Amino acid sequence: MGILLDADNKGIEDRVNLINKAVRFITQDVAITAVNTWYKSESLDIEISCHILNAGGYGELETILKEIKSQDSTFADCLYSWQDCLEKHNKEITQKEFDKFWISIYGRYDCCSNKEKKQAGTKCSLEASFQKDVWNFSHEVLNGLKNYLAMFD
User: Fold this and answer.
1) What is the rounded average pLDDT of the residues 96-119?
2) pTM of structure
């Protein structure tokens, strides 16, 4: 059994602790101490492992996607100025909300042609972006996830 979680702003260690708390409701004979490692539950007769999505110890899927973008991201990067403006006006946006917005703008304005923008809902969505060459799936930030998924072979 594999468990996949985002590190969010809590970090890897906190997420491993969260997984351990959840697993203890099911069985007491497993204590996960590291990601990408199998742990045997004798009472359940299964192996349990986890991976925590992160970039530099924190973040989530959108954080990773920002790291692996492979196209110019001028439109999306201009959102940093917008974020500064919000702060100057005592308005807040969480990092999670910002990253989701950044991915959305990257997909719609940096990676879509004018023709595609006419059908933005289907041609410029996150799902559609995975059919384009706009992500570097060879980026090192994905190595941990790739290693984890390879454990299931």
Assistant:
1) 92
2) 0.82
Indicate whether 83 and 116 sit together in one domain: yes
Are both 86 and 123 inside the same structural domain? yes
CA-CA distance, 149 to 72, in Å (whole number)? 29
36 domain residue, yes or no: yes
Which is nearest to 68 in space by CA: 133, 147, 137?
A: 137
CA atoms within 13 A on the CB side of 12: 14
Contact of 47 with 39, CB cutoff 8 Å? yes
Residue identified by tokens 């059919």 is 131
Report the C-alpha gap between 75 and 93 in whole angstroms. 18
- If asked whether residues 76 and 26 sit together in one domain, one would say no
